Each structure stands twice: as C-alpha cells, then as structure tokens.
C-alpha cells in the first residue's frame, strides 16, 4: 500500500533502494519472525520524543537488520543496515517535518563534496551528526536570509550542488 501511495504522490522519494526496496527485503527476510518485525516497527517508526530517542530507535532496527544481513548468503537480497537511518527518518519526517530531516544519500554526497561529511561508524552516529549539521546549516541560512529555514529548504539548498574543479577559459 505504501508503494502504491508513493507512486501516486511521488514527493518523498521512498521508491528507491533505501525506501520501498529496503522495506520489501525487511519483510521477506523476516518471514519466519514476522511478529518480531511488527513489534520492532511499531517501536521505531513512531515519532521520537527527542534526538536520543531517535538514536535508540535507529540502533534497534540497525541491530535487527544486521543480524539478517550478516547471515544472508546473498547480501544484495537482504535489508542493508545502511538504509536504516533514511528509512526511519522518512517516517519521522511525515510525523513532524520541522523537527526531523530525512537522511537522504543525496545531501550526504553534497556534504561530502564540500568537505563537511565523513562516513560515520554507524547509522546511529551518522544520523546524530547529520541532524546536528542540518540544524547548523538551517541556523546559518536563517541568519543570512533573515527568514526561518525549514528542513526542506536546507535539503534543497544542496540538492543540485556539484563541485566545480579547475578553471574555465572563456574565448573572446
């Protein structure tokens, strides 16, 4: 149902590898223990009370996915734990778009190109760094523009960022 809804309302980008495909893999690999997966998802998809709660939720799903991923014979078919931060922040952002930025790979690539991001040791550490960096970016942009900057504004400020290297020679 989520996949169908998102295809009709393609605003959130849930249809890719870290979204719908991750969810499908999570369900398929949890076949033997569906009740455990349902219980975990009920705990982690709801909006966190604060950042520490968010990090605990990431850790819960990360551990569950890592157990599956580590045992999988074909890792391409297993839910990759590196998708946990995006997956959960997607749902949290639906609950409260002003508080919870989505942990998009695209913004991390832009941050990396700018020298503002290094690969974290875990999804938990990554989301904490991302959340704090995103708040800092919003604060800087807000001071510069004199306007309130939303998570969406901050994300889209970097959406099409491409690092330009070298120099351009203009012919007269």
Description:
There is one protein chain. The protein contains eight helices and no strands. It is mainly alpha-helical and 172 residues long.
Q: What labels would you give this structure?
A:
172 residues, 0% strand, 8 helices, single chain, mainly alpha, 60% helix
Strand content is under 5%
- Would you identify the regions where 5 or more consecutive residues have pLDDT less than 50? none
Rg calculated over all Cα atoms: 18 Å
Number of DSSP helical runs? 8
Helix and strand sequence:
HHHHHHHH
The count of strands amounts to 0
- Range of helix content: 55-70%
Secondary structure elements and pairings:
Elements lengths: L1 H7 L8 H13 L4 H11 L6 H21 L12 H12 L9 H9 L9 H23 L5 H7 L15
Helix pairs in contact: 2-5, 3-4, 4-7, 7-8
Offer a quick outline of the entry:
By secondary structure, the protein is mainly α.
């Amino acid at each position: 149902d989520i996949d169908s809804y998102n295809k009709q309302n393609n605003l959130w980008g849930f249809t890719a590898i870290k979204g719908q495909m991750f969810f499908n893999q999570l369900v398929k690999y949890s076949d033997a223990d569906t009740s455990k997966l349902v219980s975990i998802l009920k705990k982690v998809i709801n909006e966190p009370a604060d950042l520490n709660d968010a990090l605990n939720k990431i850790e819960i799903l990360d551990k569950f996915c890592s157990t599956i991923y580590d045992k999988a014979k074909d890792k391409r078919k297993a839910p990759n734990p590196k998708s946990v931060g995006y997956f959960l922040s997607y749902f949290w952002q639906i609950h409260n778009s002003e508080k919870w930025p989505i942990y998009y790979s695209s913004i991390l690539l832009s941050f990396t190109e700018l020298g503002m991001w290094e690969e974290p040791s875990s999804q938990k550490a990554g989301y904490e760094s991302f959340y704090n960096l995103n708040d800092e970016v919003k604060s800087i942009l807000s001071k510069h523009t004199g306007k309130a900057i939303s998570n969406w504004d901050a994300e889209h400020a970097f959406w099409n960022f491409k690092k330009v290297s070298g120099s351009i020679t203009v012919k007269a």
